[in-house]
Amino acid sequence: MEIRLFRTQDTEQIAQLFHETVREVNIRDYSNNQVKAWAPDDIDFRNWSEVCLKIFTYVADEEGIIVGFGELEPNGHINCFYCHKNYQRRGVGSQIYQAIEAKALELGLDRLFTEASITAKPFFQHMGFSVVKEQQVTRRGETFTNYVMEKFLTSSDIA
């Protein structure tokens, strides 16, 4: 498996991976209506490509199949972070996270932060993040619980 930066030709695979992960994994922690609001049927592939090209988007590429991805914004915000439903708990997320943290350190950042779903919260805690606060967010008319989380970086965090 190779961890590399996003390429335009990855767009459809990561959009589909996002959609399927929310619909089939996050459904354990959220209602059917919530996951449909979070990952609606009408995926805009153009928007995905534009966003992924503007930030540091790392993908886990398993012989041409994208099995996970994570996005780092220049300010240290981790936006999207998803692993394929068939590749959960296999170290894919950890490898993507290591690439993100290495880039953050290269950029001179001292803090990473995210808004983790109920589903993703344990993963980020395992990566050393702490919960700042629980919050309620609304998307397409549905209210969701998620967690503002952060991790302070030091030079000893270099993997």
TrEMBL record:
One of its GO terms (molecular function) is acyltransferase activity, transferring groups other than amino-acyl groups. Keywords: Transferase. It comes from the Bacteria. PROSITE patterns: GNAT (PS51186). Residues 1-154 form the N-acetyltransferase domain. The keyword Cell membrane does not apply. SUPFAM superfamilies: Acyl-CoA N-acyltransferases (Nat). PANTHER family: ACETYLTRANSFERASE, ACETYLTRANSFERASE (GNAT) FAMILY PROTEIN. This is GNAT family N-acetyltransferase. It comes from Brasilonema sennae CENA114.
